Amino acid sequence: MMCEYDSKLLKLVVDDTQKAIFGLIIVSTVLMWTYMNHIPSEYLFLWGVSQALFILLRFYNAKMLSKYLKNGDEIKLKFHTVVLAVIVLYSAVVWSSITLLGAIYAPTPYEFISLAVIMGIVTAAVLSLTPIYNLFLGYFFILILVQAGVMFSFGTDAHLAIIIFLVIFMPMIVLLSKSIYKNHLSTIDTQNMLESHVSELKELSITDSLTKVYNRRHFFESAQTLVSIAKREDNEISFLMIDIDYFKNVNDTYGHQIGDYVLVRLSQEIKSMIRDGDLLARIGGEEFALLLPNTSLKGATIIAEKIRSSIEKIDFNDNYITVDVTVSIGCASLGVTIRTLEELYQDADKKLYIAKELGRNRVQ
Question: Which end of the chain is more exposed for a tag (fewer CB within 10 A), N or C?
């Protein structure tokens, strides 16, 4: 669509707005000084007001685009992109009007001055507007075709030579701007690919590749922070050690493929039962750890019993093979005698061992 662009392309335009406007002010001032003794003052004043209006609109538009690029408001971003298109085309008309006023009121060779100015504006536009390529083309052709018409109207050899020059120049600048535009797109594609890979690598670095819950390293790093916060704010926090009973027998009897299925299915079930702020990880072959912020030992025991009961009732069935699975769970909570993550882990692990000694499929 005419006014739909990648957000990163729009950001390039927004970032270049201040530099483009600064150059525009300088060129406009020089041009008005050049023509002040030739173009009637009321016309020149009106042109100056038109330029000032463009500058104000462009600054406001850039501010709005920047705002909606940050908060991701697609509807308002699209609206202000349309506004940008209107403003840019308005600028092309304003610049063309000074070309026509110069041709009407200023004697030869002042039209060559306006040509030099327009070529400078086109050059600046190549740098600042090519991220919105089709809009740039509209801006470019309005400026150049009006200038070519002025040269043709004078009709001397010099002016006809300028027209020939413009005919040669136009495809060159179009190709150059298209090359810059493609470079922008290529850079954005590369950046998106790198961001995607970084996100994937980060995900791989903190999750268990099989079950997709957190891995041991990330669990203990995050748990250390959560325990420190709980101690500082005097909040409760509990630790569950969850171990699949007789898991070695599952692998030996049915094979590792079924064993992997059990691990995945069990982790999914536990994830469905916990809160967003809880921290679940696979910390060993068939061992899982669950950290429960703002949870007392009594509350953790209730949660552990729900998990144990739910796992016991699941029909672990894969490729027509049904496996009965139970878990043993040890519970520990931060308190007077347990003040560190390591002590939490050790106490939960000790209670897990007791649960297994007492017959498994139980919470201790």
Answer: N
Q: Tokens in use for 247? A: 């898991």
Q: Does residue 223 sit in the same domain as residue 325? A: yes
Peptide bond between residue 131 and the one before it cis (omega within 30 degrees of 0)? no
d(CA 151, CA 158) in angstroms, rounded, equals 9
Q: Residue 322 is inside which H or E element, if any?
A: strand 321-323
Helix (H, G, I), strand (E, B) or coil at 320: coil
Model pLDDT for residues 229-255, shown as the tens digit of each residue: 999 999 999 999 999 999 999 999 999
Q: For residue 286, indicate whether it is catalytic.
A: yes
Q: How many CA atoms lie within 13 A of 306 on its CB side?
A: 12
User: Taking the model in full, what pTM does it have?
Assistant: 0.58
Instruction: Catalytic residue, from 221, 236, 286, 343: name it.
Output: 286
Domain count, the chain: 2
Domain that holds residue 292: 216-357
Among 171, 200, 229, identify where a domain stops. 200
Domain closes at, from 174, 200, 226? 200
